[in-house]
Amino acid sequence: MAEEKKGLNFIEQIIEEDLQNTHKREELKFRFPPEPNGYLHIGHASSICLNFGLGEKYNAPVNLRFDDTNPIKEEQEYVDAIKEDVLWLGFKWEKECYASDYFQQLYDWAVEMIKNGDAYVDSQTSEEIALQKGTPTEPGKESPYRKRSVEENLELFEQMKNGETPERGHVLRAKIDMESPNMLMRDPVMYRCLHKNHHRTKDNWKIYPMYDWAHGESDFIESISHSFCTLEFLPHRELYNWFIEKVSKEGELKPKQREFARRNLSHTVVSKRKLMQLVEKGVVKSWDDPRMPTISGLRRRGYTPNAIRKFADSIGVGKRENMIDVAHLEFCAREDLNKTAPRVMGVLDPVKLVITNYDESKEEWLEAENNPEDESAGSRELPFSRELYIEKEDFKESANRKFFRLTLGKEVRLKNAYIIKGEDVVKDAEGNITEIHCTYDPKSRSGSGTEESMRKVKGTLHWVSAKHALETEVRLYDRLFSVENPDGDKEKDFMEFVNPDSLKVINAYVEPSLKTAGIQDKFQFQRIGYFCVDKESKEGQPIFNRTVGLRDSWAKKK
Prior knowledge:
- By secondary structure, the protein is of the alpha/beta class.
- It contains 13 helices and 29 strands.
- The strands form eight sheets. The chain has a seven-stranded mixed β-sheet with strand order 12-27-28-29-25-26-13.
- Helix 2 crosses helix 11 (305-315).
- The chain starts with 9 loop residues before the first helix and ends with a helix.
- The mean pLDDT is 95.
């Protein structure tokens, strides 16, 4: 059956219409414009996939441009992390650009706007300016400095640039319309005085452009054809166009801003400010803590680029904000890892299993398939001996018919090995089971072709050989917040909803082949879930992060 052709989303429809009416295909050019004031999160991943995906679809260049106009919050660390994230997702940019590359051009244009009567220096405080702007239903009032002469404005703006004006002393405002129904058009601030060191321009500048002034002009300088941003920038579009009209000439390509809705993710927050709080207050260890919704956190947890791109593609782009269940992101991870992750055996909550009729001095190596989804993955050998570890929850002394695991008097199969039968238990003084004794059928080895090996039993257990097992640290990560929308209760701080069980650290036993596992190697622990080797591992001592379980455990809780 032929694959169903996917329809165009509304962004692609805009581009197709423009190609028919206003644009040439060779004029198409896109950009991804992050601010380097934190690490990128899953919401940014959707934007990355949108912009770079359009570049791939239309064979058009895509710039990576850093909106580095606020030296107070921006750092080179964030620049480096953002570049790593974009590359890891599998995208390459045409040019690496910075708003700071254009500081001189932006300044020169601002001077021209002053000369043309389109901008003025305002000496009011930020509080006075805010009050003077009015409300959505009441017009604003003109600044008492709005009628300053061109000469005085140029002189003051020069003083601002040279650092002769104290911080908060003056601002440069565009002269538009204080009665505009769009409050963003009521003489917006273009520049503020900041005597702060910039991570790229050092102390060369004492004034810094505001986002609305720098962003659209940067798009124009780079000949961006379509500037896609999230829905909160819809009211900014009028100002975006007004600024570009002031610096462009007839016939020049003008960027086109269009907006799409954010996709919020359940059981998390994606505000950089709130993510910063989680780090600073020690709720998580770092920006790349595997519980964080940052791309680096998801990477460290074991998510693959393909899973995240699949997630972004499946939720699409829309015109309305909505909440995406994190279970869908987890599903995308499972679906991808199921195809690629080698199967191994690990026991997270062990109890000893002794096969009483197995020779104490004997050990054998059994063949195990690496990945039933991938024939080319081959097989490996597993050590088998008299004493094994199995999961505590896989045994009950007595159980009903619906319990398909090991119990006294009942048979189950050990994965890739033999059929065993529960015979007895050993308990400590508190009544806890310390050993399970069983017998095995020597002719029932998996794959041996004997009649006994073909015998059907209802349960199959995973296991590791006790004397060969590698003891290792396993970090069981879960959702960072216990409620779907931690931002949803305006009466409570989102921190109140932090899930106290978002991380459990345990010691477990895994098969010895994992001793050589490398950082970021991914595995399916059979019957348990998907795990990834953490970067804090040492040679021969892997630490495993749980990426996702085999099933959605939260569905049961609901």
